[in-house]
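RETRY 2/3 - previous attempt timed out on the joint model. Re-submitting the same 479-residue input unchanged.
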Amino acid sequence: MSVQNLNSYDPFADEGDPLGDSADVGSTSDYIHIRIQQRNGRKTLTTLQGLPKQYDSKKLLKAFKKEFACNGTLVDDEKMGQVIQLQGDQRAKISAFLVENGLEKSTIKVHGF
Amino acid sequence: MASGEPLFDPSLKKRKKKNVVFIEDPLGADADPTKPAPETIDSTTIAGESVDLGPTTAHELMAQAPAVASEPDDLNAMFGDLKKKKKKKIPMDFGDDSGTSTPLTKEDAAPAEAAPITADDLDFSDMKKKKKSTKKKAAFDLDAFEKELQAAPAAGDDDDEDGPEPDGAHLDDIDEAELGDDPFAQAGDAPVGVDAGNEPWLKSDRDYTYQELLTRFYASLHAANPALLSSAGKKRYTIAPPQLFREGNKKSIFANVTDICKKMHRQPEHVIQYLFAEMGTTGSVDGAGRLVIKGRFQQKQIENVLRRYMVEYVTCKTCKSPDTLLTKENRIFFMACEACGSRRSVNAIKSGFQAQVGKRSKNKTG
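RETRY 2/3 succeeded.
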């Protein structure tokens, strides 16, 4: 039947392998990751990783701490670079804050449950 | 948490949009909305000539029917007011079927036309402007339309519809513009079965329209073969909810991981790796094939993570089909869609930064 013929037709056959020049396969570099970690009891920790260089993470941390009324630190990780670490589950608040202050929502990835 | 949901929505919209485009073709091919219409449906669906997506679209047509109602806007240009008039009736029929449930008589026809459009207004505020401009245009073109009306031989179909005619024609325009953005809202009303003997044209002396017959055809088709409906556009991909138990105070047991993995056609290792990376914990699989996760988790939380897993690693990004294969080549995972044949790489699972929790003395690096 012609439907099946249509199905087997590959419209991108002459495009070559779309992943042939995939330099950034699986790259996570351009995302801001917001993660959560469980601590003892019902305590949690929120980490923000991959903040673009043009933002001052120290100032951002200060703003976070004030805005969310929580404590937090700046952790230097040899692989991940500077990571903002906040007490409690601040994921939704962080992403709302970042979006409000002009970051693209598509660059923010919220992880965790 | 919320990131999964918005991902779904635009995708659905896109899919519908695609369908609308496809549907346009059969209509364009033979635009006579009157009696020869049923044959044209048959030819397109059976031979599958103008339907590109294969059998699925044919049945999604059913779901799309109301959307189609206002869709073939290009035809407006080609075929005069006869076509417009037919189309104008259709939205009111569907409104009758699904939304308002108030019986629409001919006197109600004009308000009924307005109703769906105001509903659309709520969805898209920016569309409003477009609408207004087109309405203005309607006013300007009134004369032209009236001329066309006289020219068209079948113009005097329904007497009471002659008055609001030009408006309706332009509202069709608008509908089409909105369909480009959100056919989803209208498609929701779609699969209203037309009961035999309940067709709206039986009560009035007007002719049935192409769209009505189309809906009727698909209603009877699906009534005869329910299997077609379930395998087509309205199909829902369901997975059993994860079963979570607490083991002791600090561990959760995810009992039906293997079942869920089997349902998704994914390796349990991959799923488990993703779960651990996302939730920032560790765990192990016990003898009975259950997953023991460190930390307290609820079913809802696991469900969220699984949902995100499906968006990322199971559903095809192109056609939204969950019928995909995940293969690993040169340390990179590729997802190949069984339904549409697309193939793309997927992100590697990365756990990212893990903060120090617990005692430092237990941790060498800390």
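Helices of chain A lie at 2-8, 57-68, 91-100. Closing ticket.
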